[in-house]
Every structure is written in C-alpha cells, then in structure tokens.
Amino acid sequence: MEPPHSVSFNPKGSMMSVMSNPTNIFWHESTVGKTERQNLINQQGCVVWITGLSGSGKSTLACSLNRELHSRGKLSYVLDGDNVRHGLNKNLGFSPEDRTENIRRVGEVAKLFADAGLICIASLISPYRKDRDACRAMLTDANFIEVFMNMSLEVCERRDPKGLYKLARAGKIKGFTGIDDPYEPPLNCEIMIEEKDGVCPTPCDMAGQVVSYLDENGFLHA
Ligand SMILES: Nc1ncnc2c1ncn2[C@@H]1O[C@H](COP(=O)(O)OS(=O)(=O)O)[C@@H](OP(=O)(O)O)[C@H]1O
Ligand SMILES: Nc1ncnc2c1ncn2[C@@H]1O[C@H](COP(=O)(O)OP(=O)(O)O)[C@@H](O)[C@H]1O
C-alpha cells in the first residue's frame, strides 16, 4: 500500500499537526500484502462508488449488490452515507465543506477496505465531482468503479421515502441536493443505471449490471 500524507503524533499520542509532507512519522510496511489477501479470498479488492440524488436508489442497489456478491461467495461491505453519518461522520452536516470532508473520510475508509481485498460499496450522494475524483485518485484508476444513478429529479421527488424533498420544497430544509444545492453528474463513470422507456430497472437488474462489470473486469477472481 502507498504511504499517504499524514498526521503527526507526539509521544503521548495527541495530534500535533496535519501536513502533506510529514516529518518524524514513517510508513510501516506489512509483511502480508494485498495480493496474498486477495489470493486467500479469490477476488480483487476495489471500490464501487454509487453516486446520485437522494431517492435515486443508491442504498437499494448497494444492498442488492451486497447480497448478490455474498451469494456468490464474494466478500463485500457497504459504506452508506446515512449510516456513516451516525458514527464516523456524526460531526458533519451538509455545508459544501462538510460534504467534502464526508466524502474524503469515506474515500479513505473505502481505500482501506479495498486494500484488505474486499469489494467496498460506497453509496453516498457525493454531489461534487471534484470530491469523487479525489477518491478515485486515492486508488489505482481501474479499482475505482463509479456508478451513476441517473434518475431524474422528478422520479426521486415522486419517491421521496423520507419526506425530505417535501420539506426542502417548503423551505424547511436549506441546501438540499437537487433543490437548492447542486448535483454534478459524472462525466466518465464506469456504469450508468437509468430508466429505459420510462421504466426503472429492478434492484436485481441493477445489481446484475454491476456484477457483470466486476466479472468482466476480473474482480471476482484473484
Ligand atoms: N441537505 C441535504 N441534502 C441532501 N441529503 C440530505 C440533506 N439533509 C439530510 N439529507 C439526508 O442525508 C443523506 C445524504 O447523506 P450523504 O452522506 O450521502 O450526503 S453527501 O454525500 O455528503 O452529500 C440523504 O440520504 P439518501 O436519501 O439516502 O441519499 C438524506 O436522507
Ligand atoms: N429500482 C427501483 N425500482 C423501484 N423503486 C426503487 C428502486 N430503487 C429504489 N427504489 C425505491 O426508491 C426509494 C429510494 O431508494 P433508496 O435506495 O433509499 O435511494 P437513495 O439511497 O438514493 O436515497 C425507496 O423507497 C426504494 O424502495
């Protein structure tokens, strides 16, 4: 694994400073490498990054994909925006800065899971292109698989399972993605999920589309 830029700690363990060129800390290489871990579980670690509007079906796809991979004997783990915001990112809101930090942290965790050999499924709105691209840059390009839930705002708003669009339209939530905060669609995603003839693919079909990609690109074998 590549040594990243890092945080410096004093001998008592408290944080001293954050810097891009750390001093006095050293990368410690493990004696067991990624290839050995992957051979053990016969798969290639990667990140499947699912992006799209609230209500576009990110969590539904993440769950369905996770289940399908599990049934094929493949190890995967879901990092869902809503869930991660209950723990690791509970101190973050929805300002542009907080969203960027939310995505950065999840990107770093996803990178660790991929290094462990897992197929890490990250499902977050991740509305800003530069933040998603920064996560892509944390991995070798092929190991970051961006899945765009290309559902119209109309579809998402019609679904509105949590009633958040209604609140946003009523002005009771400020800065809601797609209403008064931007969503920047990917320019070069690996996979696009979209309606055909006005019909949305089923969760099973959406997962199938991603599994086919993983299979064709060698991720389901070491
Ligand atoms: N202002 C605003 N904008 C968008 N979404 C909001 C907002 N406030 C709360 N929520 C709820 O938070 C969920 C999105 O969290 P994420 O971590 O995926 O968002 S982000 O990637 O940091 O933009 C999102 O969940 P999903 O509907 O599953 O996408 C919403 O339920
Ligand atoms: N492919 C689909 N077909 C029909 N309904 C769907 C589909 N995917 C998601 N839904 C429904 O749309 C709503 C939002 O889905 P969800 O996965 O929670 O979206 P997100 O995680 O992007 O907010 C849920 O009620 C879900 O059951």
Automatic annotation (TrEMBL):
Keywords: Amino-acid biosynthesis, ATP-binding, Cysteine biosynthesis, Kinase, Nucleotide-binding, Transferase. Pathway: Sulfur metabolism; hydrogen sulfide biosynthesis; sulfite from sulfate: step 2/3. Its EC number is 2.7.1.25. One of its GO terms (cellular component) is cytoplasm. It comes from the Eukaryota. SUPFAM superfamilies: P-loop containing nucleoside triphosphate hydrolases. Catalyzes the synthesis of activated sulfate. PANTHER family: BIFUNCTIONAL 3'-PHOSPHOADENOSINE 5'-PHOSPHOSULFATE SYNTHASE, PAPS SYNTHETASE, ISOFORM D. Belongs to the APS kinase family. This is Adenylyl-sulfate kinase.
